Amino acid sequence: MVTKIIIGCDHAGLNLKKTLINFMESKGIDVDDAGTYTKDSCDYPQIAHEVAQKIAAGEYPKGILVCGTGIGMSIAANKIKGIRAAVVSDTCSAKMSRLHNDANILCLGERIVGEELAKDITEIWLNTDFLGERHARRVNMIEQL
Ligand code: RB5
Q1: Taking CB atoms and a 6 Å cutoff, what residues make up the pocket around ligand 1?
Q2: Residue 69 Cα, ligand 1 centroid: separation in angstroms?
Q3: What is the mean pLDDT of each run of 10 residues along the chain (145 residues)?
């Protein structure tokens, strides 16, 4: 289990972000919150950029981004070299995004997944290690694109 993580959201992901912060802190994880902190409308690419850059720079091993669907956050975060952001809305994809893709950002949609499912997804995602080997070759190929 990772012990330190960064999380961010836009206005549409604020409630789920708060739920996940409480959930992860209850598991002993040190969670840094990159905002947003209110329901005022904001632009998700700014938050995605800040979180993705910190992960790409090695300040955090992994991060979570929450918006309405998870899609905008993932598209924005994946623009940053070294980021593998996966939009996940089921537990199988949560596991596979770690095992095969070494995803370093989990993107969730507050308008898509319920709180309990989001907690299950997060727990699985945080606890699953990358398999490496042939999957490492493929991830390295992605880095070269
Ligand atoms: C905001 O309305 C919404 O577009 C955003 O949260 C996200 O779902 C974008 O992908």
Answers
A1: 10, 12, 44, 67-69, 71-72
A2: 6
A3: 93 98 97 98 98 98 98 98 98 98 98 98 98 97 95
